[in-house]
Design a protein that fits this description.
Layout (H helix, E strand, L loop, with lengths): L7 H8 L14 H8 L8 E6 L12 H9 L13 H9 L6 E3 L4 E5 L2 H8 L4 E6 L4 E3 L11 H6 L2 H6 L8 E6 L12 H5 L3 E6 L7 H6 L8 H10 L1 E2 L4 E2 L7 E6 L11 H13 L4 E4 L1 E3 L21 H12 L3 E5 L22 E6 L24 E4 L8 H14 L5 H11 L17 H8 L8 E6 L3 E5 L6 E7 L5 E8 L4 E5 L6 E5 L4 E6 L1
Parallel strand pairs: 6-10, 6-11, 7-10, 11-13, 13-14, 14-15, 16-22
Antiparallel strand pairs: 1-3, 1-4, 2-3, 5-12, 8-9, 17-20, 18-19, 18-21, 21-22
Helix pairs in contact: 10-13, 11-12, 13-14, 14-15
């Protein structure tokens, strides 16, 4: 899969005014460039080394804020909060193996190993296993048209309802793990965040020698705009153009670059895990990541297969599940843009992890799945994607919209757990409870989320209809001439979606082969037809 320029090309007039000082080209020496293309470094390919146990006497790597957050959510401090054994690290160093990143959650270190070192490490008594790190991280974005159309998504999710309630993500810490944040401090839509010092820390896991300013002002590849665009979709607000890009305009941010965008196959899974653990140590409870792993290994033997998008095969999904279950973190991740790739079609990892909120993308008018948006695997026992919203430009920019949505909920009630916030978002969506593997439970609605926060009873907008035979005609109350219909083989798995015409207030459905249920999407109402 190749990287494709994202929203920058069409948002540039709104995002950037002039160029930051100190722009430098990220040229790579030829010998290192060749090794990068092959998925290796001059010292060998990258691996996870999984370890047996830990030194229980080591101090915890958590800040007082993080410990307080755990106590608030009644989450225990356990061995996943203890660092990797220093004794084991020293033994690796003694044979010339230098750990790159340490994961206390996975009890593992990432390293580069020559074939000789691989053989040595595999024989060490404290080594449980060695796994190659996937070099196929893909930024989930697509090419786009000339004019930005972000305003419709703000209307679609009912952004004014949150504004009227005074919810702007204030006092909520948000982590953003992405490819780069070039020009973020000079972007028109983000100046308000930097003016109030709303970006607290910036860390580059690709090149840790870079300073805060280096990361914001150094352009290595066009991928370095990606995190800037994502940040704008979470919290962007451009008063000069009277455009609001995101909901969490008053949130506080911690930014991490984990992806280097100058190569097609990128083995930076350990960067992502390290960034997650860093944000956990700071007490960050809400994280957006618009990166995902799919196919495309430089070594075909290491390629992911669609069947491995099961929520537990990849270590990055294992880490995401630990974050959800043991650290109280709500991870919001792009579902992926492989919906039109017939050899793949499904979500990427870590969107497959049960504990994360995976976000798909819808059309603006019908609110059904836009073609590129990845679908949920039929083999999963749970629904993916979880919810969706409008984006012309890839699920990279639908995910941050819902991150802003989550921040508003967390501001309204800081005591909610990550799973409670996730539940509110799902229940606020317009198709709930009749979700499907195309758009999940549909588009979250701020009015419904506010009612749930206030413990108010939601209006009845879902009804069940039983049908026999091959056709049924239903009276439909809607002002829409064309509506969205999902024909399904069971309760959640879509056979096909259809744009159906309403005639004289009636809709006629024709049952297709293998169709067991049908969802009629009226936006303000959902009708579920069960064929008998």
């Amino acid at each position: 899969m190749t990287f494709r320029l994202s929203l920058f090309l069409c948002l540039l007039p709104f995002l950037v005014q002039g160029q930051p000082d100190g722009i430098r080209s990220g040229l790579t020496p030829p010998d290192l460039a060749r090794s990068i293309q092959n998925g290796t470094s001059v010292d060998g390919p990258k691996y996870w080394v999984l370890l047996h146990d830990k030194d229980k006497t080591s101090p915890l790597a958590l800040s007082p804020t993080a410990i307080a957050q755990r106590k608030l959510q009644e989450l225990p401090i356990d061995d996943t909060d203890q660092p990797v054994s220093a004794t084991y690290l020293n033994q690796l160093k003694q044979i010339g193996v230098k750990p790159i990143f340490q994961s206390r959650w996975l009890n593992a270190v990432s390293v580069r190993l020559t074939p000789q070192q691989y053989a040595q490490v595999a024989k060490m008594p404290f080594v449980n296993a060695i796994q190659a790190i996937d070099p196929a991280i893909v930024i989930t974005s697509i090419a786009k048209t000339a004019n930005p159309q972000l305003a419709p998504v703000m209307s679609q999710i009912q952004a004014p309802d949150f504004a009227q309630a005074g919810l702007t993500g204030r006092f909520v810490n948000i982590g953003v793990i992405d490819a780069g944040f070039f020009g973020a401090d000079s972007a028109n839509a983000l100046k308000h965040i930097f003016a109030r010092q709303g970006v607290k820390l910036v860390r580059d896991y690709v090149n840790e020698k870079k300073t805060h300013n280096d990361l914001l002002h150094t352009l290595e590849t066009n991928a370095d705009f990606h995190g800037t665009e994502v940040l704008a979709a979470i919290a962007g607000n451009d008063p000069t153009e009277n455009i609001q890009f995101g909901l969490a305009t008053d949130a506080t941010f911690y930014l991490a670059r984990t992806d280097q965008g100058n190569r097609e196959y990128r083995g930076e899974e350990d960067n992502w895990v390290a960034a997650m653990e860093w944000m956990d140590s700071l007490g960050v409870r809400l994280i957006n990541t618009s990166l995902g792993y799919a196919k495309g290994m430089s070594n075909p033997k290491d390629n992911y297969e669609p069947g491995q998008m099961d929520g537990h095969t990849s270590l990055i999904s294992q880490a995401a599940q630990i974050a959800a279950d043991k650290k109280g973190i709500l991870i919001i991740v792009s579902a992926g843009n492989e919906g039109e790739d017939r050899s793949w079609r499904i979500i990427s990892t870590p969107a497959d992890a049960q504990g994360v909120l995976a976000i798909g993308a819808t059309n603006a008018r019908l609110w059904n799945r836009i073609g590129y948006s990845s679908i949920g695997p039929e083999s999963l026992a749970y629904l993916k994607p979880n919810v969706s919203c409008f984006s012309l430009y890839g699920t990279s920019l639908s995910a941050p919209v819902i991150t802003g949505f989550a921040a508003c909920i967390m501001q309204a009630n800081p005591k909610l757990t990550n799973k409670e916030v996730m539940s509110i978002i799902e229940k606020s969506a317009h198709l709930y409870p009749y979700g499907n593997n195309y758009i999940g439970y549909g588009v979250p609605q701020a009015s419904r989320a506010l009612a749930l926060l206030r413990n108010q009873e939601l209006p009845t907008v879902a009804r069940l209809v039983k049908a026999t035979g091959k056709t049924i005609t239903l009276p439909i109350t809607t002002t829409e001439v064309v509506i969205s219909v999902f024909h399904k083989k069971d309760a959640t798995h879509v056979l096909q979606q259809e744009a159906a015409k309403v005639t004289n207030g009636k809709l006629t459905l024709r049952r297709s082969v293998d169709e067991k249920q049908t969802t009629i999407d009226l936006k303000k109402e959902v009708i579920e037809v069960v064929w008998e």
